[in-house]
Amino acid sequence: MGSTSEFNRRDLVKRAAALGIIAVPAMGTLSACATGGGGGNGDNGAKNKGATSAKNPLGVKKGVALEAFIFKGGLGDQYAKDAEADYDKTYGVTVKHTGTQQVGPKLQPRFAGGNPPDIIDNSGADHLDMNKLSAQGQLQDLAALLDAPSLDDPKKKIRDTLYPSTLEKGKHKDVFDVFYYAFTVYGTWYSHKLLKDKGWEYPTSLDDMVKLCGEIKKSGVAPWTYPGKYPYYVHFNMFAQIAKIGGLDKWIAIDNLEPKAWTSNDAVKQVVEHYAELAAKGYFLQGSQGLTHIQSQTAWTRGKAVFLPNGSWVENEAAPTTPKDFDMAVGPLFNGGSGDKMPHGTLRAEPSEPFIVAKDGKNPVGGMELLRILLSKKHAQNFATKVRSLTTVQGATDGMQLSPGLSSAAEAVKAGGQNLLMIQLQEWYPKLTDEKLGGLTSQLLTGDMKAAEWIKKAQQYADEFAKDDSVTKFHREA
């Protein structure tokens, strides 16, 4: 098994900074770059900007209306309403709030018509194409927000309170115009109580997982389930597993759509073959290919399956069907063998839940101020309490009594230390990962496609996107 000692010190520092483990003064070497242009508008051009002061550093005009569109999915939208209530008290308006799961369909016409809402939580399956909006210059540059003082400590800028990976992930070219609010832990979720009651141990390696699945199946329970209607959920695990075994450098080649990045990486072959083996041995709950994310989670919480690929929002989203003694937990990525480039404990944990402020909204300054309120310790803790999820505010939950799933996620992040992975492919090219590769994964998990064909097709699709001039391209430094 490899270790972090295989990386030279410079690379380790770069990676640690990119993943949010250490703070560094400059992030220039880590910035994602869009060759298709960038967008955003600086603070000086924001509409309805008033006078600034110590208590109002962004210059919010009192009494000016503010409109917020919040994705109402696994995290709900009450946490946003709570922050809006504080905004209301300070600036004398009632924020016009819309909670929805159809952000894109409802807002595409409004962006096209030049009357978008001010602040948007752009998440869910039907989200807006942020890459395109940024390239068109429709997103507000959030640099002023990053440089504004924190509500908790005026001597600290907002940027200094965040995991630095937040700064990397939110950039298009040289403009920071997407703010990722949540800090999500992706991985294999399970009931700690169930494993304990059955005498099963969470597997350390891929081989151990296959062996345990055999035991689980004999007991009459399915080892795995997944949302076949949205097979890209499986990628939350699959992609990170490839990076853990093959190394971050080789994964970054995949993020960058480099030629032969899929086909020349031995870790891709090992991981995709692992999933093909699970399918061939019948280790997925029968009918999973027809389940939504809610249905797969419900089957899991009701004990029909032991493992589920998901993100840390699952604790809140599955709460209505989760038994009180379920003791939800998440485990680290599995070892592939002695040649692994990253050690046991490696985890995918990264900023998520993207917020954007519309440059052409009526009150973009107010949109940035609402984000500043959300980034206070008060509201970061409220988020953890309300939706059982971490935020990108470092140390916000220190000393809090956390729910089982959130506690497990926080412990996994701590144990992961410098070995936290961030996967950009799904963020940069969702049509590639969610539609094209998702279709391949669907066939792989039903046994209708061999691993070799999956890899061949994945490379073919990646090459097509790389050559498509209509697709905004990004680059990540290794």
TrEMBL record:
Superkingdom of source? Bacteria
**Known SUPFAM superfamilies for this protein?**
Periplasmic binding protein-like II (SSF53850)
Q: Which residues form the signal peptide?
A: none
**Which PANTHER family does this entry report, sorted A to Z?**
ARABINOSE-BINDING PROTEIN-RELATED, SN-GLYCEROL-3-PHOSPHATE-BINDING PERIPLASMIC PROTEIN UGPB
Q: Which family does the similarity line name?
A: Belongs to the bacterial solute-binding protein 1 family.
Q: Please report the name of this protein according to its UniProt entry.
A: ABC transporter substrate-binding protein
